[in-house]
Every structure is written in C-alpha cells, then in structure tokens.
Amino acid sequence: MEITSTAALFSGLGTIAIAWMLMRVVNWVWLKSKKLEKFLRQQGFSGNSYRLFHGDMKEITKQASTKAINISDSQVHNIVPCVLPFNHHINTIYGKKSFIWNGPIPNLTIADPKMIREIFFKNEIFQKHKTNSLVKWFVSGMVAYEGEQWFKVRKIASPAFHQHKLKDMFPSIYWSCNEMISKWKILVSNRNHLELDVWPDIQTLTADIISRTAFGSSYEDGMKIFELIKQQTKNWTDSMQFGFLPGWRFLPTALNRRMKSNYNETRALIKGIIHKKKKRQFNLEKQVIMMIYWVTKILQEALRLYSPASILTRTIYKETKLGEINLPPRILLSLPLVMVHHDHENWGDDADRFSEGVSKASKNNEVSFFPFGGCIGQNFALMEAKLALAMILQNFSFELSPAYVHAPTRGVTVQPQYGAQLI
C-alpha cells in the first residue's frame, strides 16, 4: 500500500514538473512574444506578426546576399538595400517605427539621431546584446564589455588614443603606407597605367598599421589574426539562425568547433605579438602632413555614404523610457547607422556639407554622424585614412576600372564584395 502511494506521489510530481517545464517553454517561444508584440503595436510600432520560434530569421537569412548596383545609376550610393536588406525591406513596408523578430525576441529599429545619442550615453540601461551565446568566440575585450568592467578598461585604453599619442604613431603609419605605394610603383613602372584590385592591399595596409602601431610586430603575425577574424565573421553570421537558442554553443557541431579553434588561435597569436613588441621611428614628410586638414571633408562624406559600422544592437534589461516611447525589458534595439546617414531629412542635397565641420553638417545642426558607432579608435582610424589617401594622391592619379562591380556588403565593416578595381 505504501509503495503504491509513494509511486503515485512520484508519478504525480513528475507530471507536475513536466507540465511546468512545458509551460515555461510555451511562455518563452509564444506567450511572452505575443504579449510584447501587442505592447509594441500599442506604442505605434509595426512589423510582421510573430511566427513560432524563428520569427523573421528565415527571411533575414534569405536576404543576406548582396546584389550589385549599376555604377551609372543615380542612386549608386544608396547602399542601405545592399548592406541591410531585410531592415530596408521592413522599413519600406512599415515605416521608421518598425520591428523585426530575432527568433522569439522583438527587435525595434531606432533611426532617430537624438535617440541614438541617448542610447550611447545611457549604456548602463541600453546594453550590448548577449543573447547569441556564440558571440564570446567572435569578439571579446572592450567592445563586448559592459558596466563597471567597460568603464575600467576604457579608462585604461583612452590615453593611447589621445592626440599626442596619435602623433607618435604617424611614423609607423607612414612606413606601412610607403610599403604599399612602393609596391604599386614597381607594378606600374614600365607602363602608363595598370588595372589593380586595391582592396586586398588596403586590407593588408590596415593589418600592417595595427600590427606596427599597437604591437610593433611583423606584418605576418598581424595578417594571420586578420584572416582568423575574417573567418570568424563568416562563422558567426552562419550561426545567427540558431545562436539565440540557450546552450547552442555547447553542442559539438563543426561550426562551433571551428569558432572555438579560431578564438583560441587568435588569443595565442595576440599574446605572442605582445611579447615581441618593438619600437620604430621614421621622419614624416611635412608635405604629407599639409595635404592631410584638405582630405578630411572628402573622407567624412565617404564615411557618411559608406559607414564602416552599418548597424548596432542594444538590449533593454529593465523598463525604461526612450524619447516619448515606453519600453519593457527583453527588447532588442537596432541602430541602423547607415540608414541615418542616408536619410534625406537629416542631410539634404548639399555635397559640401562637411565644410564647416561635423556639428553643422546635417540640416538640423545636430550631430547625426556615427560612422564608427562611438568606437574609441575613431580618431586613430581617421588619421590612418587621411595619411594613406594623402600619400596615394601624392604619387598616383586613378579612376574606376570598367571591371569594377559595385556591391557593398556587410562584414565586420562595410566593404566591397567583389574587390575595388582601379586603373
């Protein structure tokens, strides 16, 4: 009798436990999502109705490939459909106050420059997205840190990007640029012109400059790291369809094994580079320095049209207010920076808009320019680009090759999918 009663008790408890777990799953994949959808629509947002489990992920994956733009098209610089195809598709249908579904989690599009600045300033409320557990194998360090850890590491890193420190990096950047230009001179020396895909050389230049300025290391070590990052970017993109599932990164899939291996190899290379740090000095030509305060506004307009940081994502962990919008926790916010930079309401038609600086460039005289998404290395990247462009213009004239295919695509940064062929 007692054995039968005990068995019945355990059976009943097991049934209750299973029912409780099922309710938790149903709540996670359906009830919470539908409740949030209703709330967002009441706030004036529009989007597709939530579909069980995947949301919009299948459509996002389908539209990930980049289509070429006709170089003679009047809208040749409108890269939003190429770089953010699904976001553009949803924005076209539902307007600026729209949302998409990252699995069971709604993702709001925030394209108002004022709101974007507010999100950047209130980073204790609007935090970096952590739902994809595989992201730790793609990126680490300050870009992934939050709260007190982020403030501490940024405080340590900030002095390295002060103006006087950046000036000390000029010789190393000059040396890297000079090597690239010397290579091009040799290639073109016995002819009047040469067709060349400059994109691999620009990537090499970036890797070499970071290696020299940050670690003083050889180019080969830096290039290995950049190649691993490139592979890891593709791996991470491939993982997005399932990465939001709890515990997915612990499954021994081929993709997960590759991501973990690349992560460990990158860390080992960086540690090795730090141990081999050396210093270099080089005299920078005054003529190049003068040619640089001239290329600034050209670069700023190029960065507006082809923002390296195309989109950022933030997560809300507690109920808050953004502008006039009330937002609950468990919401994602997408900041489509490239959309903001292409918004005619912000920028108008003036091609010489940066002649009076960034603060007066947009129509409303408010800063709507976020090409690097608030990255601490922005001034370093601008200095690198100015010096490289000034030195190239000193030595070459160039034009776009007929072989060039205009197809900007989104990787770690916005980049040409099929290279950059110049004559």
Automatic annotation (TrEMBL):
Heme binds at residue 375. Its main location: membrane. InterPro entries: Cyt_P450, Cyt_P450_E_grp-II, Cyt_P450_sf, Cytochrome_P450_Monooxygen. It comes from Dipteronia sinensis. It is a single-pass membrane protein. Keywords: Heme, Iron, Membrane, Metal-binding, Monooxygenase, Oxidoreductase, Transmembrane, Transmembrane helix. This is Cytochrome P450. One of its GO terms (cellular component) is membrane. PANTHER family: CYTOCHROME P450 72A11-RELATED, CYTOCHROME P450 FAMILY MEMBER. It comes from the Eukaryota. The chain crosses the membrane at residues 6-31. SUPFAM superfamilies: Cytochrome P450 (SSF48264).
